Amino acid sequence: MFDIILLILSVLSLVAIVIIVGRKFPQLAQTNKKTIQQVREDATKYKIIGSRLERKIIKISSYIIKALRPIYVRIINLVKEIYEKVVHLEKQYTKMSNQKKNGVIDPQAHTQFTLSSEIDGLIEQEEYEQAEKKLIELISNDSREVEPYRRLGELYMTIKDLEQAKETFEYILTLDMKHKEESEVIDGSDDADVAADYINLGLVYRDLGLVDKALETIEKACQLEGNNPRNLDIFLETSIIAGNKISAWEAFDRLKKVNPENKKLEEFSVKIKELEKVTKIKSA
C-alpha cells in the first residue's frame, strides 16, 4: 500500500514538472536566443575594436620609424666619418709604432701624423686658411698620398672656392686612375672613396653651372656604388636639374629599391612628371 502511494506521488510530481517546464519553455528559449545574440554582438564588437587598435598600432609604428629614420641615417654617417678619421690616424700611428720597434723613427711619418692632428683641430675651429696651409704642407711631404688631397678638396667645397675644388678633385681622380692602373695598394683608394671623389667633383661642376658634366660625373659614382642612397639621391636631383627625364626615372627606380622609406621620393616623382610635361610642351 505504501509503495502504491509513493508511486502515485512520483507520477504527480513528474506531471507537475512537465507542466511547469512546458509553460516556461518559450521564455527560456527566448532568453537563450537573446544570450547567444548578445555573445555574438560582443564578439563582433571586440573584433572590430581589436582590428582598429591593431591598425592604429601599425600606423603609429610606421610614423615612429619614418621620424627616426633621418636621425638614424645622420648617426650612421657621423659614425662612418669618425670611423674613417680613426682608421686614418690608426694607420699613421701603426706605421710610426712599427718604425719605433725596429729602432727607426721616420721624421717624415711623425711630421705627417702631427700635421694631420693639427688640421683636424683647425677645421673643427673653422680656421680654414690655416688648415689649407697645413694640408698643402702635408701634401708636399708625400705627394702620392691621396687622403690629404681629398681633405683639401672638401675644404675648398666648404669655403665655396669652387675653381680650386674642381682642380683638386680632377687631380685626385687622376691619381685614383693611376693607382688603379699600376695595381698599387694605396690607402683610401677603394671603390667607395673613388665614388665619393666623383660625387664631390660632380657637385662642384653642378655649382659651377656645368650640369651635363656634373650628371656624367655623378653617374660614374653610381656605377661604382650602385646601392648608395646618397649617391642615387644626388644623381636623381642632378638629372632633374639637367632636364634628363630618362636618367631621372632610372635613378628614381634605383633609389626606391634601395631606400623605399625616403621622404623625398614623392617630391622627386612630382618633379619628374612636371619635367615630362615641360618636355611635351616644348616638343609640340
Distance between the termini: 119 Å
Tally of helical runs: 10
Largest sheet: none
Order of helices and strands: HHHHHHHHHH
- Average pLDDT for all residues: 77
Given the C-alpha coordinates, what overall shape results? Answer: elongated
The low-confidence runs, each spanning 5 or more residues with pLDDT under 50, are 185-189
Number of strands: 0
Structural class designation: mainly alpha
Instruction: Estimate percent helicity.
Output: over 70%
Quaternary organization: single chain
The percent range for strand residues is: under 5%
From the alpha-carbon coordinates, what is the Rg to the nearest angstrom?
A: 38 Å
Could you walk me through the main structural features you see in this protein, from its secondary elements to its overall organization?
The chain is mainly alpha-helical and 284 residues long. Among the domains are: 67 residues, Serine Threonine Protein Phosphatase 5, Tetratricopeptide repeat, CATH 1.25.40; 69 residues. Helix content is 86%, strand content 0%. It has ten helices and no strands. Helix 1 crosses helix 2 and helix 3 packs antiparallel against helix 4. The longest helix is centred in the first third of the chain and has 100 residues. The radius of gyration is 38 Å and the shape is elongated. The termini are far apart.
